[in-house]
Design a protein that fits this description.
Elements (H helix, E strand, L loop, with lengths): L4 H17 L7 E5 L9 E8 L7 E5 L2 E2 L5 E3 L5 E3 L3 E2 L2 E5 L8 E4 L4 E6 L16 H10 L3 H15 L1 E11 L4 E9 L1 E6 L5 E4 L16 E3 L2 H9 L4 H4 L4 H5 L2 H4 L2 H15 L12 E2 L7 H8 L32 E9 L5 H4 E6 L9 E4 L14 H6 L16 H14 L1 H36 L1 H23 L1
Antiparallel strand pairs: 1-2, 1-14, 2-17, 3-8, 4-7, 5-6, 8-9, 9-10, 10-11, 11-12, 12-13, 13-15, 14-16, 17-18, 18-19
């Protein structure tokens, strides 16, 4: 492995050009489950991050930081935001060079990622170039709860304006889960997922009717309605209740089978009902049964098995990933995770990010505790401060495969299996499930010991969480060497 580095890089670039032609990168997928919809009473947030190659993923732990009076955060397009006295520690899944691909879990158990949603707003007035990349980062650094993250994000959107077409941020903590949808300009709305329900989102807005007055389950700017009235998109006397997704989704996003099929598949699999693609899909619903980690890892690994969109077994060496009707687990999936957010435990141990570091159907989901001190050596190219400083600094060397960086091992494995998927996947599944099951069975006993240690010595407990999290990550890397 890695002997033909130039060949690998050229392959990535070729793959990038082909994927871009097919519209790759608009294929993220998320599931949010309230604490009454899960077996253990945790809030769950499952996500596949999809982006067009070439990419790398760095796994980084940023510490809790103190800042001097007068410091500012400089946004990507030049605007500035006053820095707060202290910023939270957080786990950071970084994709350098990308503006809308990173995911976070901070020390308070607030997890954040996003799905691109094309809006029908073409132009808007922005302040200092608007905000994009820093929106989720500032939420992760400053929010103590998911609701506070939405409020922070909403104020930033109203102050600077969102410079991209649109997006929905999935935000969850140990008590609540929210979908926070932003539209080009200063428009935003958010809806809380009911505790006993599940919400699924692909790449179109899913929030429907909104009730911003005296309803704690909705947040947003009143301008979301007045703007639509001004543009003639919404007339209360004609249209009745205001429906955000019907009014603001770009038609190509709203009706694209690439989006609808994945949203539909998630709803069908988790609800146990046969929903029609010809009828509006729900923002949220009661699942067929209370959910656990295996239910969510299974949906992140889904390729439409057993339904009309399934790929024939003899097509393309049995590889189900590269198709026009995008799979939930697809050729552009860069990583997947399930955030398990348990309220009854200290957050450092109660919040776990189960990570599949490349292709969910190939690699096991391994547990990474919120309270880790660091990721193992080799899981990032640079330390956290260097990674922050170089997020948008051109650096072509980051795409050069090296055995010193764990990501390339996961990348190479996925490419190797895809080339002969039908013949290789069964053995891969057996090994994947063995690792995953072993770690899941080890968690309860380990946590029982660490819970006692947390009461006596926080530092030793966090060291134990760091070491345990490293076991699964190192095992993944070891399997590919």
């Amino acid at each position: 492995m890695f002997k033909n580095t130039r060949g690998i890089v050229l392959f990535i670039l070729l793959f990038f050009s082909l994927s871009s032609m097919a519209g790759a990168g608009e294929n993220c997928f998320s599931v949010l489950a309230g604490n009454g919809a899960t077996r253990d009473g945790a809030v769950y947030f499952a996500h596949n991050e999809d982006d067009p190659p070439p990419q790398i993923v760095n796994f980084i732990k940023v510490p809790h930081l103190s800042h001097k009076p007068g410091e500012v955060v400089t946004l990507k397009n030049g605007g500035t935001v006053p820095q707060v006295p202290e910023t939270a520690a957080y786990i950071w899944l970084q994709m350098p060079g990308e503006e809308f691909a990173d995911s976070y879990m901070n020390e308070y158990g607030v997890a954040i990622s996003s799905n691109q949603c094309q809006s029908r707003v073409k132009q808007a007035k922005l302040t200092d170039g608007g905000i994009g990349y820093w929106l989720r980062r500032l939420m992760a650094e400053r929010a103590h709860t998911a609701r506070e993250a939405v409020e922070i994000g909403g104020k930033l959107v109203e102050e600077f304006g969102y410079h991209s077409s649109g997006r929905t941020y999935s935000i969850a903590d140990t008590k609540e889960a929210w979908l926070f949808s932003v539209v080009r300009g200063r428009l935003w709305v958010a809806e809380r997922v009911p505790d006993n329900q599940v919400a699924v989102i692909a790449n179109c807005y899913t929030i429907g009717e909104i009730k911003l007055s005296d309803n704690a389950d909705y947040l947003g700017t009143p301008a979301i309605i007045s703007y639509a009235v001004k543009r003639g998109w919404y007339k209360p006397d004609r249209d009745g209740a205001f429906n955000f997704r019907e009014i603001y989704n770009a038609p190509k996003s709203k009706y694209s089978i690439r989006n609808l099929a994945r949203w539909w598949r998630g709803v069908v699999k988790l609800s146990g009902k046969d929903w029609s693609l010809r009828k509006p899909l729900p923002f949220s619903f009661v699942p067929a049964r209370k959910l656990g980690i295996p239910d969510l890892t299974a949906i992140l690994r889904d390729h439409y098995e057993g339904c009309q969109f399934e790929t024939p077994a003899d097509f393309n060496h049995g590889n189900p990933h590269g198709n026009f009707v995008k799979r939930i687990c697809s050729d552009t999936t860069q990583y997947g995770f399930v955030a398990q957010l348990r309220p009854e435990l200290p957050v450092s141990m109660g919040a776990i990010l189960w990570i599949a570091p490349r292709r969910p159907c190939i690699q096991p989901f391994v547990p990474v505790y919120c309270g880790i001190l660091a990721f193992p050596h080799g899981f990032a190219r640079k330390p956290f401060d260097g990674a922050i400083a170089s997020q948008f600094t051109p650096d072509s060397s980051r795409y050069v495969a090296t055995e010193k960086l764990a990501y390339w091992s996961f990348f190479e494995q996925a490419m190797r299996i895809d080339a002969d998927y039908g013949n290789k996947i069964e053995a891969v599944r057996l090994r994947r499930d063995e690792v995953e099951t072993t770690l899941m069975r080890a968690v309860p006993g380990f946590e029982k010991k660490v819970l006692k240690l947390l009461k006596r010595n926080q530092k030793k407990a966090r060291t134990a969480l760091t070491r345990f999290s490293a076991i699964g990550l190192k095992e993944l890397w070891k399997l590919n060497r």
